[in-house]
Design a protein that fits this description.
Two copies of one chain form a homodimer.
Chain A (H helix, E strand, L loop, with lengths): L3 E4 L2 H12 L7 H19 L9 H13 L4 E2 L8 H12 L3 E2 L5 H6 L4 E3 L14 H10 L4 E4 L24 E5 L13 E5 L5 H6 L13 E4 L4 E4 L1
Parallel strand pairs in A: 1-9, 2-3, 4-5, 5-6, 6-7
Antiparallel strand pairs in A: 7-8
Helix pairs in contact in A: 2-3, 3-4
EC number (chains A, B): 5.1.99.6
InterPro entries (chains A, B): YjeF_N_dom, YjeF_N_dom_sf, YJEFN_prot_NAXE-like
GO molecular function (chains A, B): metal ion binding; NAD(P)HX epimerase activity; nucleotide binding
């Protein structure tokens, strides 16, 4: 691994996604989500070998892969995104009879689970946390069950990390997976394990964004990086 | 693994793909190709730990993953499919500076490679083999280098296997990866290893097509099945 963990701010991260999905980059949103969700599922498998989940598109893909790894994921998805790709992901899960549950109080759901995958909000989140997500943030903040946060812990500011006060200000997930590149708030992450996923980023793109490509091993779609690595904001 | 390897004929295989991509199945072609190519790349890694490749869409995805595993794939793609998803896959490879070579004689290309991934034709192939593919089939038939065939060895009939006479009649790849489900011609496969990829097929679909779902291990997207397994044509 590089000595220094370079992070991408919101503009650069959005630009990079735009490059990948541009006419020149050639990736479709379907492909990128499939790859991201696969990385998330591998991170879950790493921190919690088979026996719960929540989120956005990456999380829905991860839930599918996790099902096939032998997990029994439960999906909390109270505000479905209205786009064909999301509809498709939901159908894929329905066809596997994977349980969606937006009715059971989140603390009860969490109590029945072994691990929570937090893919509620990404790095472009703007406060405040609205209902019904406040309930979920409060439960994750309590730390009742270990949480793997996807890309950015939900409710965190992309640069400044946890909110200064109130709901979410003490939210610290146990595990984090950064997708494509770490975001600047990773400097606030004091959990147990940090992974990076994005084994499709070429040297040209890495150079353009001044990123280091981590050294993935074997067939892995994720790589673990030290939690105490020095962070460089780009 | 199941005692008997059930295989899907061309109609059922096409119907299954149609189901997966139907409004009810929810998968996009982008997702299925991503998953298929990932399986292919894992099969390559299995039979030939890092140090070459050829094909269609699944093969293009596999070439990308293989690059990231540390391989130096060379892509033979003389008749590009004119569809946006294929254009995107090619751009992804171009951005990684992966070599496309349709000019070098195929026997020379093969001579410089350690393994050939055959993803030229699928199970819907209809003879005869046209130029310039005849050259490639002839080289693979000679067995100069080991070949991993994707889903159906190119030029084989979906039921009857190798052509009765002439070009391709003696073509027997060393390795085969069946995608989603084995095709009936697998009964003619006498190579060293047979893999199945398709860890996204649910029990409902498997039941509808009367398939057994193989027992994948850990994070694997492929499973190896005995070459001498009894074959049941569905």
């Amino acid at each position: 691994m590089p000595q220094t963990l370079k992070t991408l701010g919101p503009k650069a991260a959005a630009d990079l996604d735009g490059d990948l999905m541009s006419d020149a980059g050639g990736f479709s949103i379907d492909q990128l989500m499939e790859l991201a969700g696969l990385s998330v599922s591998q991170a879950v498998y790493n921190v919690h070998p088979p026996s719960a989940g929540n989120n956005g598109g990456d999380g829905l893909v991860a839930a599918r892969h996790l099902y096939f790894y032998g997990y029994t994921p439960v999906v909390y998805y109270p505000k479905p995104t209205k786009k064909p790709i999301y509809d498709g992901l939901v159908k894929q899960l329905n066809n596997l009879h994977i349980r969606f549950d937006n009715e059971t109080p989140f603390d009860k759901l969490a109590g029945e689970s072994d691990l929570i995958v937090d893919a509620l909000f990404g790095f472009s989140f703007q406060p405040p946390v609205r209902e019904p997500f406040d309930q979920a943030i409060a439960v994750m903040e309590k730390g009742v069950k270990p949480v793997l946060a996807v890309d950015t812990p939900s409710s965190w500011h992309v640069e400044d990390g946890p909110q200064n006060e109130g709901l979410g200000s003490k939210y610290m997930p146990d595990y984090l997976i950064s997708l494509t590149a770490a975001k600047p708030n990773v400097g606030h992450f004091k959990g147990k394990k940090h992974f990076i996923g994005g084994r499709f980023l070429g040297e040209d793109v890495a150079k353009k964004y001044n990123l280091n490509i981590p050294e993935y091993k074997g067939l892995d779609q994720i790589v673990e990086v030290p939690v105490d690595v020095k962070v460089e904001k780009l």
